[in-house]
Amino acid sequence: MKNGDMDMHVRGTSRFVDDIPAPEGCLHAVLFTSPVARGKILSLDISGAAAAPGVAAVYTHRDVPGLNQVGHVLKDQPLLAVDSVEYIGQPIALVVADTPRNARRAAQLISADIEKLEPVFDPREAAAKGLIHGARRVLVNGDPEAAFAKCKIVAQGRLSSGPQEHFYFETQRALAVPGEHDTIKVHASAQSPGAFHRHLAEVLGIPMHKVELDIRRLGGGFGGKESTAVWIVAPAMAAFILKRPVKLVLGRNEDIATTGKRHAYEYDYKLGLDAEGKILAYEIDLFQHAGACADISLAVLGRSFLHVSGSYNIPNIRISAVSCRTNIPPNNAFRGFGVPQGTFAIEAALNHAAELMGLEAEILKGGNLLREGDTLPYGVKLDSVNAVRCWQTLDKKVNISARRAAVVEYNNDHTDTKRGLSVVPVSFGISFAQMALNQASSLVNIYVDGSVSVSTGAVEMGQGVNTKIRVVAARTLGASVDRVRVDTTNTSRIPNASPTSASSGADLNGMATKFACEKLYERLRDFAAKQLGQADPAAIVIRDGIIYDGGKTAGLTWEKLVAAAQWARVDLSEHAFYATPNLHYDLKAERGRPFAYYSYAASLTEVLLDCVRGTYTIEAIDIVQDVGESLSPEVDLGQIHGAVVQGIGWATLEQLRYGADGKVLTGVSAYKVPDIKFVPKRFDVTLLKDSSNPYAVCNSKAIGEPPLVHGLGAYFAILEALRGVRRDKAAPSLPLTPEKAFMYLHAPAAGGTK
Amino acid sequence: MPSFILNQRVVSTDESPGLVLLEFIRGTACLSGTKEACREGECGACTVLVGARQADGSVAYKACASCLLPIGDVDGCHIVTVEGLIGEPLTLVQRLIVENSASQCGFCTPGIVLSLTGFCLGSPSLSYEEAINALDGNICRCTGYVSIRNAARALCEKLAGTTAVPSKRLDSLIFSGVVPEYFRAIPGQLSELRAAPASCGKDAVFVAGGTDLFVQKPEQLMESGLCFLSKRRDLDYVRVDDGRLLVGGAVTIEDFRNAAPVREHFPGLREDLLLHSSAILRNKATLAGNIVNASPIGDAAIILLALDASLVITAADGAKREVPLAKFYLGYKKTDLACGELVSEIVIPLLQAGARYHFEKVSNRATLDIAAVNSALRVTTGPDGAITGLILSAGGVGPTPLLVGGLEAFYGRKPDAVTADAIARAAEAAAKPIDDIRGSAVYKKLLTGQLVRAHFAAPAAAGGAV
């Protein structure tokens, strides 16, 4: 089934936060933020702004009614700075005026006298100085030292991967409307209903039952609306104090400059193999560029940590990971949540090793794939492994060695252009690594006219979770899918909801919905049996809105059954709860079963490099993706396309540049995400056949994030084309922009000639 | 007081002519289908159609970014937002987007609907390639574009057989459900609109498209007197006269690309200018505006410098003077244009026998991006194949668009790889780039040389072979 919102999207009638007609007297809020990356606030003058035309109020930390904190995991992030600032873009004051224009103009009249302190922008430097969030994590499995001694090949090096801007189309925003009895209703573009609900209550200093957070849909999230509550809490605080509706909408460049990004990483890797190319040992140090506050960085780092072995069996491993505190805006979740970064290092190490051995990387990769019964570094013995199946299905589809031969032949015949090819396998653990988050609830109401409303904690952001929940509800209830509507995500209907992230939205909320619908189904079936005089309720089947008795239509429709049941005082509403079973993890031992199952895939990317100009085109990508039994192939295909292109963007074009003072220089005119002409001409996706998955709703598999990892193929294919020209330099870092490709080709090597 | 038709309704407003249409649509008119996502013309979420009445009475529709379009500029026009596309129950474009699942979060979707509808109404060719060109300014962060391409392909298949003349297409587009029936009455309604007289006060700011101006200082322009060159029909021409291509000061990049004399005499420019900007900006931005904007990296300036163009500058009192473009740029963003003066015409000499022109641009993203370095070359060779003329320009390598000097030294040499290499080194030496968001100085310097080598290596374009 297609995404049901599209009919509205094409008409422009779907409502985003800023499309909600502004309530009478609505005010507009703008943040005044730090122009300095690290400093002491000596004084702050808001008098000019307070006296400016149209201004209703200017607030500082002193005005926060409750707790001046929006730290998501650790309480280390004030909503409004108190006496120091830790990054450019840190909120210092909140200006509220009658129009957005007046608020903006007034904010420019605020002056802050800030004594500059030495900032840190380099994660390795931060780690060396002990500026870290949380504690370093270390995992050792097997005996890496002894194993390295036996290795014939050791590939060792340094790497880095860059940050990525979410570029969700709808920037951060919220509309807060105060109600009676000190209550407040907030409409927000947010992925974390439960957590943000709590942040709102804490900052306003009121109990959570006085706060209602309502989320209809997001104009894209990609993780960027999961953890930082600043832009939701700030307008709510103003609305709460002023008793007027207040809206805050970030401008695009404000959003790029002040919100968190995908974490950049630095890596030290050492990979050892035997003469046959079997991986024996791996050592990897991860330095995560986290920014000024912990935000959700430790969770992201944890996921990188658990995915450093990628899709490969590595018997001896030592992993070390540290989250580095630097003076940039706190980085946060971004589709893939550390997995693409963790995978990048092992893929790079294997490419490096292949080069040392004079082998094609795909030969090494294919020979080390995870197989049934292999054990992951954290002790999970794998079953239902589809890594090899995905790889073989891809090979059948594209004939990897024939594609390789064609590339070699092309490169032999061409000097001004070169082709490159890369095969990337994906293995992605599904579940929140944070155990507590693996829970969801669903409220299903059947109305007397037969229409059904479903509320869950899942947030629709284009990924089609509501469509999947509709399918699950309709299928389980036996109602026609048109009768089912998924209502807004609302904290008054669904409390304490986990964020919609970790690709888990449909898994968790779909399962809770299934449970609720199963109870309702049973109740209606039993009632129908009674109505029809059927002694055995099992003989009754409700399907697609029609009631069958012993396989024959019983002359009873869904609508009639529901109406009769209500009249007979049958409860037509159900709430159900789901918690993913059998998850456990011991942080001290770094052992456990953090994921319910794994999502597998494989892809082949081919690029054409223009050696004269240093530019490239991503020519083709072929993908095999394991989605289990898809709840909606249309939605899953769209998720794959979108994630892959986002991944390619991260690996190639998308580059943030910072000034020496730590300021983001790349606004919307310079931060370029893929456009329609950038996308590979050949883009072929196959969903793995005959894959089932007992660990998720209706045997499906999560799809939101895993395909993003395929984007790495573009990096490695370009790198291969570059290495075909010269090898006297170290590999450029990720993203491999045209500038880096050009410099690799044309700038003299340090201490050598071309 | 600007008056225009917004979908089916005539509006007259006393808002400032400098207020951008996006704000008017969402704020004043309370139509929320048009989305704001960047305010710089970089994303396409705010795309609307602007229908302007033509001399023959028909209405020509173009997709434009409404975030950079002042309402004063659409006086007398028909503006179509997504709310104005009412189908049964969907228009053809809308239906194909749904059928192909070409929408996810939906925020960019109205803009894509409008760009594709604008393509149906206005593109000289209804090919798939042109459909993609029409979508080159519509960024989507969710779909990865595969489904959008599929929708565009399906659209072109449905439109196969439609007349190639946009002004004669309306009936068939209404019939196939691309646009609603009410479009038929628009030409008549527009003719009854009383367009405000083009009142350009003494201190008025000339708006020659405004796609950069309204990024730079939108707030200031809200309070300025504005003079819209789009109203100057007398400056909207491209013609050949006496061996020269004459381009009026109000000609948009897209109209210039499509003009018959350009296709005939400078066929390469059609593709080159696709790199200038996206369709929704090319439909508004003008060649003259891009010149006057004086960006050291502006594509039009780099191209026209190599083509030895000159500018006809008209003063407020009507006095005209002609300035070679090579002498127009005086410093960073400084030009030889006095207050009240206007670039009324661009004069481009046609290529002589033995001359060829070539343009190169490298940007981080290949399309819809500002160059790291761009460069153009006009090289003329005599009957013996030796160089008799050389003009080489480069952008992004100094405070003004660079014209590489001293190239007479290469006259008489064959334009082979050795010569190319020597010229490349001369260009590298002349380039004085700085480190900035488009790339490091070292990169830009080396790239300049490579682009010169690429000029000479490029297959000879029509207009003369090397």
Describe the protein's architecture and organization.
Among the domains of chain A are: 217 residues, Aldehyde oxidase/xanthine dehydrogenase, molybdopterin binding domain (Aldehyde Oxidoreductase, domain 4), CATH 3.30.365.10; 141 residues, Aldehyde Oxidoreductase, domain 4 (2-Layer Sandwich), CATH 3.30.365. Chain A contains 19 helices and 29 strands. In chain A, the strands form 7 sheets. Chain A has an 8-stranded mixed beta sheet. In chain A, a hairpin with a 5-residue loop joins strand 13 and strand 14. In chain A, helix 9 packs parallel to helix 10. The longest helix of chain A is centred in the C-terminal third of the chain and has 28 residues. Chain A is globular and about 80 Å long. In chain B, the strands form 5 sheets. Chain B has a 5-stranded mixed beta sheet. In chain B, strands 8-9-14-10-11 form a 5-stranded antiparallel beta sheet. Chain B has a 4-stranded antiparallel beta sheet with strand order 15-16-17-18, sandwiched between helices. Chain B contains 17 helices and 18 strands. The C terminus of chain B is likely disordered. With 466 residues, chain B is of the alpha+beta class. Chain B has 3 domains: 190 residues, Beta-grasp domain (Ubiquitin-like (UB roll)); 117 residues, Uridine Diphospho-n-acetylenolpyruvylglucosamine Reductase, domain 3; 103 residues, Enolase-like, domain 1. Chains A and B meet through helix 1, helix 17 and helix 19 of A and helix 2, helix 3, helix 5, strand 15 and helix 17 of B.
